[in-house]
């Protein structure tokens, strides 16, 4: 199968590319190489790489030539950055899917749109979100992703486009940009730097290993149905539990944990019901504890990969996001 993977130089996208190359697919990657896209993630893989923006119709039709399917990982994804500045989120997460949908409409190709559990907003203890639940996004990021999801569903209904949506939990594993909780804490802990806990740290997230997430997206590509949404759940943990495990696994000093000013609008809890995906045959293989240990080992062994990222644009972002909080 010839498949276009947008955002294929990013975290989940590059894992998915590796997986598709392993089954013999012809993979084209379209990636804008923003701060979070990283060509090192695709090194030596032998895919056809095109630098470009999903919001640019010309770049999309050129890259997509001859593809039977597109899997869209391209997105601005970090909640904290969306709170600082949301414009790029609207362009990439709302206008970008529109361009991909227009291309799918013209070509008849299939589209898998990768979204997030954050579109449901936070939910009370003891409940889980189902695919049919109302979308109540809290942050500029999750609102932009919800906008993309709704366009996909509208294009299926209006034009009969062959598109489907996945909504994944918090994903972790190797090659994740160190702005996100797990790699931020692991790399800071390895460097003996403070670990900023937003608010009381009692927020809850579901954690999904990137290999299990990629397998779910692959299943939806082949076995999912047009117009359907599929939740991809993880294992629920309180943030402080995850943070303490990282301190332990890295051998860092627990006093590095610092409670700092909370994120505005911070969602307390996400949890997904993914029985629909399980009915298609999906079963996660990685336990959180084991997956986290392996992830810590990867960051320990690949210091050059993350030190390069942390030395660039990241420094300005880190100062803007954390300097006041940690002072
Ligand atoms: P994050 O990785 O940003 O993912 P999301 O906001 O999409 O869930 O954050 C995961 C959780 O960790 C979230 O509840 C916010 C919290 N967090 C901190 O406490 N400190 C931090 O420095 C970061 C980045 C996140």
List the keywords.
2 domains; seven-stranded parallel sheet; binds thymidine-5'-diphosphate; UDP-galactose 4-epimerase, domain 1; 327 residues; alpha/beta; Rossmann fold
Low-pLDDT stretches are none
Q: For this structure, what is the CATH homologous superfamily of the largest domain?
A: NAD(P)-binding Rossmann-like Domain
Mean pLDDT rating: 98
CATH domain class of the largest domain: Alpha Beta
Radius of gyration: 19 Å
Share of β-strand residues: 15-25%
- In DSSP terms (H or I, runs of 4 or more residues), the helix count works out at 12
Distance from N terminus to C terminus (CA atoms, Å) equals 53 Å
The helix content is 40-55%
Task: Outline the biggest β-sheet.
Answer: 7 strands, parallel
- Please identify the oligomeric state: single chain
Strand order of the largest sheet: 3-2-1-4-5-6-10
């Amino acid at each position: 199968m010839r498949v276009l993977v947008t955002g294929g130089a990013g975290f989940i996208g590059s894992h998915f590319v590796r997986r598709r190359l392993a089954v013999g697919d012809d993979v084209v990657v379209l990636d804008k190489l923003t701060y979070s896209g990283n060509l090192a993630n695709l090194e030596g893989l032998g895919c056809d790489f095109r630098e470009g923006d999903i919001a640019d119709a010309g770049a999309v039709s050129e890259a997509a030539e001859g593809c039977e399917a597109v899997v869209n990982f391209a997105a601005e994804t970090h909640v904290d950055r969306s709170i600082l500045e949301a414009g790029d989120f609207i362009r990439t997460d709302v206008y970008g899917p529109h361009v991909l949908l227009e291309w799918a409409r013209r070509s008849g190709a299939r589209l898998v749109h990768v979204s997030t559990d954050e579109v449901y907003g936070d939910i009370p203890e003891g409940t889980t979100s189902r695919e049919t639940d109302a979308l109540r996004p809290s942050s500029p990021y999750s609102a932009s992703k919800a906008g993309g999801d709704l366009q996909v569903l509208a294009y299926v209904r209006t034009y009969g486009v062959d598109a489907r949506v996945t909504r994944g939990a918090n994903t972790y594993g190797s090659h994740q940009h160190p702005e996100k909780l797990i790699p931020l804490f692991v790399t800071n802990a390895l460097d003996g730097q403070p670990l900023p806990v937003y608010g009381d740290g009692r927020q809850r997230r579901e954690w999904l290993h990137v290999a299990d997430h990629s397998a779910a997206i692959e299943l939806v590509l082949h076995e999912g149905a047009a117009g359907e949404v599929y939740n991809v759940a993880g294992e629920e943990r309180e943030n402080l539990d995850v943070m303490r495990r990282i301190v332990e696994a890295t051998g860092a000093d627990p006093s590095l944990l610092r409670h700092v000013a909370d994120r505005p609008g911070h969602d307390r809890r996400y949890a997904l019901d993914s029985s629909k995906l399980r009915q298609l045959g999906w079963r996660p293989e990685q336990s959180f504890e084991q997956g986290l240990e392996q992830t810590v080992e990867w960051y320990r062994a690949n210091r050059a990969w993350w030190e390069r990222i942390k030395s660039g644009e990241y420094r300005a972002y880190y100062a803007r996001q954390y300097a006041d909080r940690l002072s």
